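Final report, closing paragraph on structural work. Over the funding period we assembled a curated collection of sequence-structure pairs, and we close with a single example.
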Amino acid sequence: MSEDRDQTPSSTTAASPSESERAVTVDALGRVVVSAQALARAGIAPGQDVIVEATAEGVRIVPDVLRKVHVEATSHCNLDCSMCVRHGWQEPLGHMPLARFERLVEGLPFVCADHLTLAFSGFGEPLVHPAWQDMMRLARGRQHRVELITNGLLLDAGVASTLVDLGVAQVTVSVDGGDAAAYTRMRGTDLEGALGAVRRLLEARRHTRRALSIGIAAVATRSNVATLPALVDWADDVKLDFVSISNLVPHTEEMAREILWERTGWASVFQRASWRPRLVVGRFDLEHATRPLAAAIWVRGLSYPSLNADDGAWRNRCRFALEGMCAVAWDGRVTPCLSLLHGHTEHINNQARSVRAYVVGHIDEQPLAAIWRSPSFRAFRERLRVFDFPPCFHCGGCPLTETNDEDCYGNPAPVCGECLWAQGIVLCP
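Its predicted structure, as stored:
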């Protein structure tokens, strides 16, 4: 890609005055030429890496900049959920020291206000950290956008008011079940703790003019999926901003029996053009009369959304690499994504798979902005964007997929052909 001010007029490539005023043109050699004005409007500086992605709407061209950091303030939690990654790892637990978080924030690239998000998530409960308020206050003081994912058990009226007062942009409460029995099987505690947290957030927001987005996230399993419609109905009744329903990452053999995506994983390697018959459907009202048609459409696709009707956007797409995200563990290690934050076990394709963490830097040693721009991390993001990994779900497991160290294409570690996140099976927070 080049800017039109750098083009040298010639007999074959000279642009007419009308063409030179266009934002984007294609020269005689087939190169895309983008005007300096258009690049500036897109926030792309000369010499900067860019992301080029073909989508159903056309070509997306954006700068390869850091937009979201998943911050694991702590790996401690006040619950012991049956689906938790802790049942598939053996790592020390700890809180991120406030001084380390200060280094993290100081090492972020300069951005305009609210253009970079710090998401307090990871694999612990952020509100058990003794200095969570100081961390969020520091982030907001630098005008960074702040999100929180919480189980809600520590979110009393005072915490709700504090989150609103700090200007937190989004709070997601994990609610894994639409009735008390289903939730308790997953979380080992009472459902009302999570639902009460949501109500307190709604009440705290009601008394202010701050734009706090409030939603819930659920992990769908074979045991709780029948209760999730009731959870969606409840979210509609209280007027939540969003509901996110993801799939389960099975860390034990017992949890592997709870998955709802076995056929989806297999079908995710298919190209849309291979489906017969292809379905082209105009939008229609979902009501009692149309539900049989809707059911017939989706059932024939083997998965939801149906792979013979959707645009294929979820297949082989790493959101972390394409949307400018990374993760930082409580001990300061920087990783490309949440899945590579800690070494753990996953049970996929009827075998145990050892996923090793992949570290691209440490915030005690380098500013996060420098780690993001390092040659090795840039090269790895490019690998993820190309996503030239084998279709491991289609093969159904082999000795090479027992770890994420290598694959049959000869890719270096870590390999991502069996990544549930890249297939849209597990949703990024």
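The CA atoms of residues 133 and 162 lie 8 Å apart. The mean pLDDT is 87. We thank the funder for supporting this effort.
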